[in-house]
Structures are given as C-alpha cells and as structure tokens.
C-alpha cells in the first residue's frame, strides 16, 4: 500500500506556543526569567526541547552548558505534558487532507521526533489520533529521524510499502530522512521556517493542504 507519512510539530500542528511556555517555565524556575519569545522563537521551538533550551542558554552566554540543559530537559517535558494543548492548533486543512488521502486509498501515518507518549497525548487531546494508521515517536525505536529506518518502520506499521511512500515535513531533518530513504518529500511553507524550505530542494513545496492529494498522486502515483 502506498503511504503518506507526516511529521507532527510544524507540519500537522503549530505546537510552538506550548513548547515555548514549557521552556520558559524551566528558565523561570532556574532564576533566569523567560528567555524565549513565543513569536520570534517559534522556529526553534519546532526543532525540539533541547534546541529551545540551548537557545535560551545562549542568551545567557552559556550555550555549551550541557549539564544544565540536561538537567532542565526532563523538567521541560513535565511542564509540557501538563499543558500540552493550550495554544496548539492544527494547521488549516490538515485533517481534511488526511481524510481525503485515506478516502482515496492511501495509508496515512505520523513519524515524529517528539517522544511517543507526548505525541499520543497531544493527538488524543486534539481528537485526531485514530485518523492515522500508525504513529512512531522519537523513542519508539532505537533510531529516530533522520535515520531512514524510523520512516520505513512507520510505513510498515501502517501496512504500507517503504519503497512507495512520501514524507510531508517542515525541516532539514525531514528532507534528509526522505533523501536517505530514497523517497520523495513535500515540505510545508506555512510554518515559521517556511521561507527556508525551497533551499532544501524537496520534490515539492506545499503552501495549502488542499493541494496535497494532487501532489501525492504526482509524486508516488495513485493508490494500489
């Protein structure tokens, strides 16, 4: 079965507000104040917890303080888990596109570098977990994106063929994953890093989820 795999943060949903709030809670507890800006630092937030912590520590001229970053990381996850969906929203048209792809006969899945438990909790709260045939997080396997096996195993668990899939994402990590797996990638341009996506030379860019089903057909063909 042909499969469309989605990244989560920055691709299906804008999770940056809740991520930044969790990071700032850690900085405040440590006596540093709120070091991150919900608007200006959204792109960093979508690259993950450690990226946010390192950016904040860089503003204290302590970017290489791995010990404090390591100490704050589990606290960040705890803050985030408690308030995971206060600001998070699904991007316009995302779930309509997922349903259109499923209706056409494609399998759909999520491959994210967010810890699996947090990803499941978020998708459950958003009411969309059951829309996907499989979902693998950063700790579901011994590897994670950009290792292509993370993508391939996601496809297998969705009942698909790893040689007949496509990855929809929003970062160089997603582009490198698809390249190493030898499959096409579609990178979205509506996120905070959208203007940088063309330089990664994906097979296609996506500005509107309404265009995704046609792009999928063009890149991997009609469903089996």
UniProtKB/TrEMBL annotation:
Q: What Enzyme Commission number(s) apply to this enzyme?
A: 3.1.3.18
Task: Tell me if Hydrolase is a UniProt keyword of this record.
Answer: yes
Question: Keywords on this record?
Answer: Hydrolase
Upper lineage ranks? Answer: Bacteria, Pseudomonadati, Pseudomonadota, Alphaproteobacteria, Rhodobacterales
Q: Which InterPro entries match?
A: HAD-like_hydrolase_sf, HAD-like_sf, HAD-SF_hydro_IA, HAD_sf, PGP-like_dom2
Q: Which SUPFAM superfamilies match?
A: HAD-like (SSF56784)
Q: What is this protein called?
A: phosphoglycolate phosphatase
GO annotation (BP), single: DNA repair
The record's Pfam families line, in alphabetical order, gives: Hydrolase
Q: Which GO cellular component terms are attached?
A: cytosol
A molecular function annotated in GO for this UniProt entry is:
phosphoglycolate phosphatase activity
Q: Which family does it belong to?
A: Belongs to the HAD-like hydrolase superfamily. CbbY/CbbZ/Gph/YieH family.
**Reactions listed under catalytic activity:** 2-phosphoglycolate + H2O = glycolate + phosphate
Pathway entry: Organic acid metabolism; glycolate biosynthesis; glycolate from 2-phosphoglycolate: step 1/1
The record's NCBIfam families line, in alphabetical order, gives:
HAD-SF-IA-v1
Keyword Hydrolase applies? yes
